[in-house]
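Tokens for ChrR-like cupin domain-containing protein. Go.
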Amino acid sequence: MNKQLAHWPLLSAIVLLCLGALPAHAQDTADSEMMMMNPAGMKWVDGPPSMPKGLKLAVLYGDPGKDGPYVIRMKAPGGYKVPPHWHTQTENITVISGTLYLGGGDAMDMGAAHALKAGGFHNLPGGVHHYAFTKTATVVQIHGMGPLDIKYVNPQDDPSPKQ
């Protein structure tokens, strides 16, 4: 038998195995339910104890406290400040309304922060020290892979109840 033709049975078997897996994957996708949500359907709750008071949060998709993708919206009042902190995972921020001020580093320097206006986007890799604040009411959408955590550079800035 020709050496090139000798590989065809093995190659054919691999191709058939791969093709056989496609319908199962396509069916899994087809069985998934599409999800849509208008603003009136969003359930807003107080932000977690690890965030300064005044924040409202709506989970749009997934569970930010678990492994896997999530999408959340956060409403912050004017004058809201999140001291320098970092996250284990990358987060992606889109400003829906208002202006979010973001700065990098271990100290909050309000004069050095960048204004991210409505429609603006920011990719924040995990481990990067940063801070955020608002001057007016602001809504942001955050998405990424969970679990979403917050680790304050200065542990005294963590508003979580002390145990």
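DSSP finds two helices and eleven strands in the chain.
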